[in-house]
Fold this protein.
Amino acid sequence: MNSNILFATPCWHIQNQPVPEGAVEWALEFPKNNPGQKQSNRGGYQSHYLPFYGCNFPYEEHIKNLLAFFPSYIIKEWWLNISGPGDYNVKHNHPDSDLALIWYITDNYGTLRLDDPNGFTRINLYKAIGGEYGYTKGLIAKAGDMIIFPSDIDHFVEPFTDNKPKISVAMNLCFTGDMEALRNTLKESKILED
């Protein structure tokens, strides 16, 4: 008898990428001329949503290079997050997009948590087959890493205690164009493993 895991949630972790020179300084200067908003953030700074194309986002080419393996996509918007000690983001998702991206300018200190969409209904099944179970999965990202996951997955950011700022840029991505090429690319890409 064979057993298979079906309907897995894809998640990509692009690792070991250098942070462009000046990115931390750019991020720390950004709030001075761009008022923040309160969305999922509790404390810290979250910019308003900004269009990715044509808004002079200084790292557009860097982001596009990291996403070169995805065919036919657009990034709808981006926003900057800066958190200090005790700041966090409540559980949320990103409607009206296909994927959520988080590009880390600094380490995330292991504070990103993704909810298992089946965690509440299948916990006994997961235990019975000896699989990993739990309601959330924590993801550790280093400065320069990018984490990408389906935008309908609930996620949140736990508070952290380090005195250094925690800086990330979040984005919403939508696929366009040739769906066959997209399917082939997604089949070949690696699912995140710890």
The first strand starts at residue 12 and ends at 14. DSSP finds four helices and eleven strands in the chain. The chain has a mean pLDDT of 85. The CA atoms of residues 43 and 87 lie 5 Å apart.
